[in-house]
Amino acid sequence: MPLLECIGLTKRWGSVTTVDNVDITVNPGEVVALIGPNGAGKSTIFNLIAGTIRKSGGTVSFLGERVERLAAVDLARLGMSRTYQITSLFPQLTALENVRLALQSCTRSRLMPVPSKALRAQTTEEAMEWLDRVRLKAHANTIAATLSHGDQRLLEIATALAMKPKLVLLDEPTQGMSVDETRGTVELLKSLLKGTNMAVLLVEHDLEVVFGLAQRVVVVEQGRKIADGLPEAVKADPAVQRAYLGVGHAEN
């Protein structure tokens, strides 16, 4: 059974259809990349899945249950976390505090304005472990807003993964990174996912990232799905080459 199953996802803004009857599945432990040219509808699809915008049509099932009417916060509690195209952190809190809040949100004490000493100690220890795993332990007490752009992206990944989701939606995790930072992030994500059953749905423009991480690639163009398959098969698809990879008739 798929972990995530989207059938007929559709979004209309008045007379304009930005997502048109798109099906997407993600299986447990699978890394799926969603790609397409600018304006293809990728971010809208992400927001439809994550419950941040209302669907015009279609269904979303997560863990075998229909969830398209649930808000983003409810999906997070079920085990779906995400990052954003524009970094979304608490900028005036430290790196440690950002991860600790993510961890606390997964506990029964998430609504407590002041956590107990025991919970604070537990989440601090776990947060430091996550910062170490994303190579930010030395910046634990650094205010998030003062971190470099690349380190802010890594911190956001840490906060998403620290919640131990069953599915994480990564929205352009390497956007704005240098070539070296991007390659380092790909290797880091591989190591973080290794040995887990965590699934990933990834939106990314950098094809080196896509083909370095994804086990399956879904391609959309003008709101419609035009390909879905193994990376090498998608690379060779003439429709994908024309629409996205800039070869064949893409220049016309």
TrEMBL record:
Keywords: ATP-binding, Cell inner membrane, Cell membrane, Membrane, Nucleotide-binding, Transport. Residues 4-247 form the ABC transporter domain. It holds the Pfam family BCA_ABC_TP_C. One of its GO terms (molecular function) is ATP binding. This is ABC transporter ATP-binding protein. It comes from Ralstonia soli.
